[in-house]
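MODEL INPUT / OUTPUT PAIR
PAIR INDEX: 1
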Amino acid sequence: MTDKYVVFVRNPVHLDLSDTTKGFADMMVCEHDSPTEFYILDKSDGKHVATYQVNNFYFFHIGNAYDYIDPKTGDVNIHVDIVSYREEHYPYMDYSISNLLDPKKPLQNGTLVRYQMDSVNKADPAKICRGSVASAIAGLPCELPRVSKPASMDPNYRYTYGISGIGVSAPGTEVPIGRLSNGLGAVHPTVYGSLFKSDWKTGLFKLWTPSNGESCPTEPIFIQRPGATEEDDGIVITITINREGTHSILVGLDGKTFKEVARADMPQVYALGPHGSFVEGDFGL
């Protein structure tokens, strides 16, 4: 969502229902020759106001979106920041157990891309408009993009946090989390072995990689420092598993420097799953 609009992004994918004995993933059919579409609805009344098309891409997660006034035209434009894939299949398929265990099928590299829809306030909902690529964070294979809570829908936001797969070492040999090469459990580079912080203003990014043979990190969550006046003034938290696989570790990174500043051993192993949130409060404790 943006401040004024709801944006639905349609993956060029449909379900083949001719054989319902198949699993959900096996029924997915990619439309390689179809554009990816953005449907824009007005928040105030829910009416469809515009449809935009861009060249074919697939996506799994959206980082942020916002509307803004174009200083050159005075029109309302929309930016949507998405981890974009231009590969042979929908990225959802990468996370099947069979694919994770098969080194002949490497994970696709997603790129954080900013898509632009111009003059939404003047668009004819009965016609198809053309969207474009405004910018991208080059050289950063990534997924699970997150922003700070105040940065959501903010046209001036800069920073995105997430997981990255840039050439890092495999986790400890005692923790088979990653891509297995054979039945012996030898570990190849992890699915996503690092966290990233990217900057839309500069186009640059920083990485943090777990040390001491720890597992790949979970999706990061940014917690803003109380009273902060800068967007990246806060702590980024993530979870890894220790080398022996006996317990998880809660890790805190400085939001500005992206360097580790704190860690705490947890009493047990927590699954390395995506998604979560930070809720402020004392909850009666």
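PAIR INDEX: 2
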Amino acid sequence: MSSPGTLFVIPPEIIQHILAFCLPLDVSAFSRTCRAAYDVVYSPNDQYLWRELIIHHFDDPRKSLRCTTSSISLRYDWKMELQRRMMSSSIVLNARGISDDQLRFALETFISIIDDASPISQIQAVPSNGLRWLACLLHQSQILYRQPPQELKQLVARLSVYFLFSDVDEDEEYALISPGQRTESRCFAYDLRNYNMGNNWGPYLRDGSVNWLHVQHLMTVIWANLADLPERWKNVRPSVGLETTRAFSAPDIASQRDWAGVEGTWRRYVCFMDYRDLFSFNFSNVFRGPRNKAYFTENVRFREATRLLEVKLKVVARNKLKFSNTDDDPAIRNPLYPPLYFHGISRGVDGNGSVIEGMVKMGNDGASEKVSVHDGTTQWSSEGVQVGSVASAAGVVGAWTTSIHDQGDPVGPFWLWKVSDDFPTDTVVDYI
């Protein structure tokens, strides 16, 4: 066995190159073996080793969509970012407990890893190393299954939306949602107080940012309802998991002009209560109401409908729209992602098509993507949020209601996701 002195006869640049292929924790262990090893890892002024460790074990953030709007390649602190990720890993695997500050630190780190994931290449779809690492870590930890403090609920909900529905074995995919969670989400999704002018009748906060807790409840209602569908329909469902949040992971992305991947064929699940049940849940005293969870747990007559629609969309000029309210604030427009306007057909189980139109725009936060859908009249409208990055396979989750927005109007969750143009057309179903 060679002595430490023999090893360090090798130029430090060569040692760093070798270390770049090691696990970060092993590099840390190596640095503690002697002073010379410590100097090789921590003393160089450049960030070559730290950059290579991130690129080998995660994704190159310079290739992420975030890089297109900033000079991230010039100001990215590779050393700090890698240490941040390793520290977050230790925090969530710590069985002795996590402080609120530590939990916030870890959650923000994990969301940044998702944001840094490389877009899907239409030529060769290579899995993301960073998302694979994060999925393994979240599967081992329990941070998404514990009750978070109020101020962290949005962060936990956002990460849950990205990951939680995939954190099960294939034969147990619907068992993840407990009856209690389903009831809680139904109570939230069908509570008419959660839809008003202040949140634009959608899953938003008053400042225009995404209400991820609302999105999670809408997703939970739909995902749980899929378990009630006959066996034939269980494979007709949105894609879930961290990989599906990557930019351009949806099929058939047509052109750069259509940055959101709007054009093409989509499937849309819509859920709703009978309007008499919806009114009774919100305004009557039955089952210790109004808005008591007993309405769903003790009411043997309660039924919830699930409808699957086929949608075909095409990007059009704004002046081609007839009914949609497409007002948007020019002050918050992203020049790289200008608003897109679309027109199309939605077809249900009866085979009859209805005209729909709407708009896609980048959110106020510069990251989230908002989708507004109207039918070809002035009756129905929908507001939704892209789950993940631009043109992600996870699709759009939101709420539908009327265009008039009168008090007491019906409301319900929807999930819209893109499929290939040759996706079977006989899978449109109406199930109650």
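PAIR 2 NOTE: The mean pLDDT is 88.
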